[in-house]
Amino acid sequence: MKKLIALLLALVMVLGLAACGAKEPATTPTGDTPAPDADKTEKTIAVIAKGESHAFWQAVKAGAEKAGKEKGYKITFQGPASEDPKDVPSQITMVQTALSNNVDGIVLATIGSGFGELLTQAYDKKIPVVTFDSGLKAKEDITEGKNPIVAHVATSNLAAASINGEKLFEAIKADIAKATADAPYIVGVIQHDETQTGIDRAKGFEDKFKELADADETTKGKYKIEKEIKQGDADQSYVKALEALYEKKINALFMTNEGVVKQVYDATKSAEGKYDAIKFCGFDAGTKQINWIKEDGAVKLIGSVAQDSIDMGYKAVLECIAAVEGGEAKNVDIAGAWYDKTNIDQMIKDNLVYEG
Q1: Which residue range forms the structural domain that includes residue 248?
Q2: Is residue 204 part of a domain?
Q3: Tens digit of pLDDT for each residue in 25-34?
Q4: CA nearest to 208, candidates 180, 187, 229
Q5: Residues 175 and 116 in one domain
Q6: Burial of 248 from C-beta contacts in 10 A (0-12 / 13-18 / 19+)
Q7: Which residues contact 287 (CB under 8 A, 6 or more apart)?
Q8: Which residue has the higher pLDDT, 55 or 246?
Q9: 0.70 cut: is pTM over it?
């Protein structure tokens, strides 16, 4: 009997200890049981740009962080000191660090070549890469059969310049309507070079302008487009283009990049009164372009189109997250952002328009 009682007491003690050791489900401060993944490590997208301090890249960063915040991802952002080839090694180190940290995805714009081994590592680690802005500088950095790049996000020069075509048409529509087929309103274009960028910007502008002008009975057949194409800004080439178009009696002018705007602006300042009748429209940003828009002088720059770097960073991160989560990432063309006197200060504040 004593042995039986002892065994029963021992059993009671064991059951009591087990009960004491059992833990109640963890609760939040509100008393709710947390979701199973409440303590899960935050996923990370590494954004490696071609720079970090310039306003353009700060705007890219703002867009990237906005996307990360919306989707619950941590965003790291880095860029080399400059876009000079000498800084390629530092950018390579940034990519290697991201891979070593096993980030979930990489958003990348390179300033040179030498990323082949790292991209192969990304593929082997199943880390998706989205290129943005100019993307990879060297196609040979891609190993056949081991390409981790799932999408590319960049400004569409065709789409951006079509905004110029739309805005300039709106500004001069009434003047074109007063012209005739025999004495047409002449629109000039200075294309800064014959690269694809120059070609697309000129084409984007012309296609949209013609589309709108030909669809309106008050302007159809009453305009003409004259174009000058240069190979760069050496020897005041854009001023020479301006003079050639002036001799053709242009009434308005679209300039395809900041370099053209700078030279044309200086020419209008040094020849007071000569170009007062011409309405100008620009592309990109820069100090002279900003000053010209803000001025109340007789020679008018009605506005310009800047690259929407905020949207570029935002969309690049969204596509990378889509790939991380098993979805389909896609290429995205970013249109430009129009600015004029009405919104230029806000555009500067948002780093979409910057001096330089």
Answers
A1: 157-306
A2: yes
A3: 333 333 333 3
A4: 187
A5: no
A6: exposed
A7: 355, 356
A8: 246
A9: yes
